[in-house]
Design a protein that fits this description.
Blueprint (H helix, E strand, L loop, with lengths): L1 E7 L10 E6 L2 E7 L3 H7 L4 H19 L12 E8 L2 H5 L2 H12 L2 E8 L26 E4 L4 H13 L5 E7 L2 H17 L4 E7 L1 E3 L11 H16 L5 E2 L4 H5 L18 H14 L5 E2 L7 H6 L4 H7 L27 H12 L27 H12 L3 H9 L7 H22 L2 H7 L8
Parallel strand pairs: 1-4, 4-5, 6-7, 6-10, 7-8, 10-11
Antiparallel strand pairs: 1-2, 2-3, 3-9
Helix pairs in contact: 2-7, 4-9, 12-15, 14-15
Length: about 450
């Protein structure tokens, strides 16, 4: 599938950004929906390469949502030949191969990218536009930027940074293209702003597409647009400002829990191979801000139990969202819950909170420990539960774990990642041992003192 990007200066919005469209023989015209107002008001006029990267990332995200996988011969792997319009095509051509590798690893598609020079300026500073005036509790200077999703890991990453650096100030970048994440981020931020006055600032940006309806729901590419926003913000603050992308190592590595998940059916949003490849792209583009995952070698339980402000975390944990099935509420027992309780991220979340003695099944749409969903259910909702149970039975030694890790990508130091997976599975096993029903424990091959 051949896709081209175009700029239209005559369609420039009042925030200074030209109209950006994507089109091709098999793709109806799609407009990139990137309201630039908040970024401009907060950070000023952009560096052209930083803006290029943000727009390329946003376009990849829009393409991912606008091209149905069922159009592919195997109903999954799409062939995407995309020509991007950028400010410096020669610089981008040097990184095209590695960008293709990063995108292919992330989305599971075949990407072939090329670049042409922009026919007009992508951004023109709007007249009479002034940078946003700081409120009294917003910092004038920034020492770090962090992605802020509204999830448990991103909250822990911010708390750890602020608690470990008592005078440092941080800019939080939130991405959303639906109402839910925006309000979740705002609620958590209000607590952080109160706890750490004068040291935090939140910028939220919607990146989506028009028409807004998603043709393809798999959405493997969200992390590149999130990182694009973060790198843009960090580079506009200063070249040495780091970007933090906090995600626990167990989920970031995303071990295929069953053999059938070894392909791109497992998401790879913060996988170390993907981040390493993207770092190389960013560096050779001249964007020198470091991209780090401060939680990359911690299990989710270790992230929770070693958080630098346990009281604050305990008060906010239930307000975070770690769920990948948050919109599938039809069969939930508790419709007002914000996490489903049965997807892989939710189950590792519960195991982590159990390690800190703050887990509660009532906080979830489904409590798998109470047989509200069982491994022998014929419902699709039980697939993740079956996968976790399979992993607990399957990964009984380091050799099996190492083989599963390297089936996805080579990562180093491999022994550290093997230990990480082993500890993460132990947390899940302990959670099921202590809280699981007899039926769940039996399925997992786990005994309990309750069975004695």
């Amino acid at each position: 599938m051949t896709i081209a990007m175009d700029f239209d200066a005559s369609g420039r919005s009042d925030d200074g950004l030209a109209l950006i469209t994507l089109s091709g023989p098999e793709l109806k015209r799609v407009t990139l929906d990137l309201p630039f107002k908040e970024l401009y008001r907060s950070l000023g006029s952009p560096d052209p390469i930083a803006l290029d990267f943000l727009v390329v990332a946003g376009a990849c995200y829009a393409i991912d949502k606008a091209v149905a996988r069922k159009s592919a011969s195997d109903w999954w792997t799409r062939n995407l030949d995309v020509t991007f319009v950028v400010s410096d095509p020669k610089r981008w051509e040097k990184v095209a191969g590695r960008l293709n590798t990063a995108l292919a690893f992330l989305s599971g598609d075949v990407w072939r990218t090329s670049f042409k020079e922009a026919p007009c300026e992508l951004f023109v500073a709007p007249k009479l536009r002034r940078k946003k005036t700081l409120t009294p509790d917003e910092p004038e200077t920034i020492e770090a930027v962090s992605l802020f999703s509204g999830g448990l890991d991103s909250l822990i990453g911010v708390i750890d940074f602020l608690a470990s650096n008592p005078t440092a100030r941080i800019l939080l970048v939130g991405h959303y293209d639906a109402p839910g994440p925006k309000s979740q981020q705002e609620r958590l931020y209000e607590h952080l702003r109160t706890r750490f006055p004068g040291r935090t600032k939140l910028v939220q940006v919607r990146v989506s597409q028009k028409p807004v309806k998603n043709v393809e729901p798999s959405l493997r590419s969200r992390s590149i647009v999130f990182i694009g926003l973060g790198i843009y913000a960090a580079s506009e603050v200063a070249a040495e400002i780091p970007l933090l992308a906090p995600e626990n190592g167990t989920i970031a590595l995303n071990l295929p829990l069953t053999p059938s998940r070894s392909g791109s059916c497992s998401t790879r949003t913060m996988h170390p191979f993907y981040l390493d490849t993207l770092r190389s792209v960013l560096n050779d583009l001249g964007l020198k801000n470091s991209l780090t995952n401060p939680l990359g070698l911690k299990t989710k339980g270790e992230c929770v139990t070693t958080c630098r402000d346990q009281a604050l975390l305990a008060s906010l944990a239930a307000k975070t969202v770690s769920c990948s099935h948050g919109t599938r509420r039809r069969d939930w027992k508790r419709k007002k819950a914000t996490n489903c309780g049965y997807c892989v991220p939710c189950m590792f979340r519960r195991a982590a909170l159990h390690a800190a003695t703050i887990d509660a099944g009532k906080d979830y749409g489904i409590d798998v420990c109470a047989n509200e969903l069982t491994v022998d259910s014929d419902h699709e909702s039980a697939d993740d539960l079956r996968a976790l149970i399979s992993a607990l039975r399957r990964f009984t030694n380091d050799g099996e774990i190492r083989k599963a890790i390297t089936s996805v990508a080579v990562v180093q130091p491999i022994n550290d990642y093997v230990g990480l997976v082993r500890r993460g599975l132990t947390e899940a096993r302990n959670w099921i041992t202590d809280k699981g029903s007899a039926k769940l424990r039996k399925a997992a091959g786990i005994g309990s003192s309750k069975d004695a």
